[in-house]
Amino acid sequence: VQLVESGGDLVQPGGSLRLSCAASGFTISRYNMSWYRRAPGKERESVATISSTGGSTAYVESVKGRFTISRDNTANTVYLQMNSLKPEDTAVYYCSANRAIVTYWGQGTQVTVSS
Q: How high is the mean pLDDT of the chain?
């Protein structure tokens, strides 16, 4: 079982990035998928969640209207489109898959927003 995030980079304020999370060893279609982040000196926070069918999404208040979570169950991949990035979005972003008591985590990808 593996989740591999990619797409993190250094970007200027106001820029955009698209993170991807590719799953292997299991099928994400039965899992709720989430993106978390951990900024330096801060606790990990949930950024966005999408239900197994994709019919429901939820976002932390600070990213509403700027970030969009989506999933492609055929490709076994989850995405996070991040627009209008701010310096406070700087963090390591992690992908997570959850079903009942089972949770899988990726290794994270660094997003740095700086001029």
A: 97
